[in-house]
Sequence to fold (493 residues):
Amino acid sequence: MTYRIYLKNNCKPEVRSTGYHPVHSFFFWGLCFASLLMSGYYFLFTPNLSHTKLDSAIISVVPITDEKINSFSSEPVPAKLVSKNIKNLSKANNLESNDGKSRKNQKIKTKISWQSVVVKSGDNLALIFSKLGLSSSSLFQIMSLGKETSILKMLTPGDKLKFHIANNQLLAIEYEINLTKILRITKKDNEFVAEEIDIKLDSIVKNASGIIDDSLFLSGQKAGLSDNLIMRLVAIFGWDIDFALDIRKGDSFTILYKEQYKNGIKVSEGPIIAAEFINQGKNIRAIRYSENNKQNDYYAENGDAMRKAFLRTPVDFFSRISSRFSFGRKHPVLNKIRAHKGVDYAAPSGTPIRATGDGVIVFVGKNGGFGRTIKLKHGGAYSTVYAHMRSFAKNMRKGKKVKQGQIIGYVGQSGLATGPHLHYEFQIHGIHRNPLTVKLPKVKAIAKENLPEFKKTIVPILAELDRITGRNVISAQESGQSNETKISKVGDG
Fold:
């Protein structure tokens, strides 16, 4: 018997018999053994084939007739069958490939979320971590970063934190330090890194004008200004105008200021970019400017600093002068003619008293008829005295340095006083001078080499002030509304 290998359907080899012969028998069983080996090879080393495909790939051995012997060598393998097999194998491979992509997509779709937490009374970072199911080891790593994350030890009710969590693992934390700064902690290479990120606020320049009728405070409110902006306006002109004494009906003001927005929501107002105050016919203008990109300050049009070495008054503008500087005043308690070497400002008990200049406390305590008193030394020549206080501000002690405008005490009537008021004295080389009329020393003006740049910068600002003051300010006062304005260059906010 003769055996020939023949490719069956789907390229499956067959062996068909043509007659019996011992040699043929040996060949037949050898071929069967080889077929089994080949089947094992495909099963072990061809993972892309399913069991169904493997069954069809096993070589079958079937007898063939003599008529087929001569034609076998020349009979071609059907091309369609070969193509079909290739397609089947390719399909199996694609199924496996798609399974791999699916597994990758599952990884990509890992659950990631941001959780916002508002700190409640009694909360701390450890407790918040516990509520979120985060590990204490992550908390330890974060707090071990030192100074950068120490602020998280001082969380207060109302503070907001955002946690970036994936599969119960902490990836990032965001904490809003203030309106313009965020603390961001991110996990990189299994370690946490902290950084402070600045938040840019959107700014709109606005303007407001008003004419004083009853008081600056009420007129400012009618013009749409907040109490904060009114106080800033007073602070700008407080060196040149005594708001307790000098304000008159018909005085007017105009200001350019910024409003700042975060995500479309107003978060703050100010600073004042420029302001004009007409007091008793005298026009005073102030422009905010940073010389050599250093600290911002206010300057007159000629470059002189608005800020003087001393404030004109030590109390806010809602006080009044009850007694002036005089050498022949009759004392209200002693009923004797006694020189009054200062100015008395009558104000409600508890009204803040501010240091009129930078200085050092040389006396603090009770001083006879002056009651509770503080005396400041300002450089070599100047001294100021504040008497009849109800109480001192915290940490007021001899030798302590104070800043101009810093609260040092509160109005009262300690000592020989008939009502709550502040007795204020101004001395030069130990000689008493009238605080209302004494010429105050100026602060250094803009350097000559920087004046051209300063004057160039303020041109559009002054033009805008001229435009606003040139319109009907009475109309602006009646409307009680501020207006947006545009300035090409207004300096740093």
Q: What stands out?
A: The first strand starts at residue 3 and ends at 8. The chain has a mean pLDDT of 77. The longest helix spans residues 79-108.
